[in-house]
Amino acid sequence: MTGTERKVFQKYYPPDFDPSKIPRAKGQRNRQFVQRVMTPFNMQCNTCHEYIYKGKKFNMKRETAEGESYLGLKIFRFYFRCPNCLAEITFKTDLENCDYQNEHGATRLFEAVKLYQDQQKQADEQEAEDAKDPMKMLEKRTMQSRQEMEEMGNLEDLQESSRTKECVDTIGFLSATDPHLAQAQRIKMMEEEDDRMARELMGITSEGRIERRIKDYEDDGDDQSDDDKDLPGPSSSTAITLKPAIPKLGTDDNTNNRKRNEQKDRFAGIKLIKKAKPSETADTPLTSSTSSSTSSAPVPSVVTPVPGPSGLSLLAGYGSDSDSD
């Protein structure tokens, strides 16, 4: 049979095919087969103490264990050699525990799963034995109830101790024990102190208002305004609270009237004198002494300049002289 014939799914059977006529091969009763198998557990060789870990692949020989079966199922035995010293190692299947059993040439290493399974199996067997004896069952129930009462008492003690610790200041305890937390609190206190000093220098109160101090000043006499005269003397200092100006309705007319009165008071001592016409300047004297003597208030003297001959009049006169000549 070639390789291509081996891979086909449908094979040709002639019409006269009779499978009973196929000769059967004669072989040994306990024949060994070569099979590629992985080690089912961690083991150590007894000859050279080489460690062979679970999952390592070997070409093993498989045979059927004679005289051994479990519920009518055959048990197989596997043979392989140590990769270091070539010592023969054997193990077989354990159908009862769904596992493999070490037989010869190596020692099985510790496995937590295997230990747990063994302990669970022993506990189940012990429980089955106790179920048959009523006195043992009564003793077991008594021990369980006593253990439950002890656990409840321990739980109540823990709850009582936790209630007494509720009044403990955990933040203070942590700040006292943790140096990093204490350093953070010191830095925070320093920042708060710096903010307080800055607010004092800027004159900001705790309410958010700004206050400024007016220093003592000397009296300058006439340079001091009327508003400054209302302030206290040089030996005292006054704190002025700056507040935003609140506009008032209906005060525009009062403000305009006040400005007009101030302008009138400023220009009260100044008199305006109109410029005299040229016809009136010849008749009126240059100075008015009589008015100054009779008036009670001093009036400044005004000199009105006499206009000279214009250029057109001179040109007209020059033309008339030439015609006469």
Number of helices: 10
Helical content band: 40-55%
Gross geometry: elongated
**How are strands sequenced across the largest beta sheet?**
1-4-5-6-7
Largest sheet: 5 strands, antiparallel
- Mean pLDDT score, rounded? 74
- Specify the structural class: alpha+beta
Which spans of ≥5 residues are poorly predicted at pLDDT below 50? 216-245, 281-304
- Please give the radius of gyration in angstroms: 64 Å
Identify the quaternary structure here: single chain
Strand percentage lies at 15-25%
Order of helices and strands: HEEEEEEEEHHHHEHEHHHH
Roughly how many Å apart are the termini?
167 Å
Number of strands: 10
Molecular structure report:
This protein has about 325 residues and is an alpha+beta fold. The protein has ten helices and ten strands. The chain is elongated. It starts with a helix and ends with a helix. Mean pLDDT is about 75; it is low at about 215-245 and about 280-305.
Name the descriptors.
single chain; alpha+beta; five-stranded antiparallel sheet; elongated
Helices and strands in order, then pairings?
Elements: H1 3-6, E1 33-38, E2 43-45, E3 51-52, E4 57-70, E5 73-81, E6 88-94, E7 99-104, E8 106-108, H2 112-132, H3 134-164, H4 170-177, H5 179-202, E9 210-214, H6 226-229, E10 238-242, H7 252-266, H8 278-283, H9 289-294, H10 311-324
Helix pairs in contact: 4-5
At a glance:
This protein is α+β, with helices and mostly antiparallel strands. It contains ten helices and ten strands. Zn(2+) binds at residues 45, 48, 82, 85.
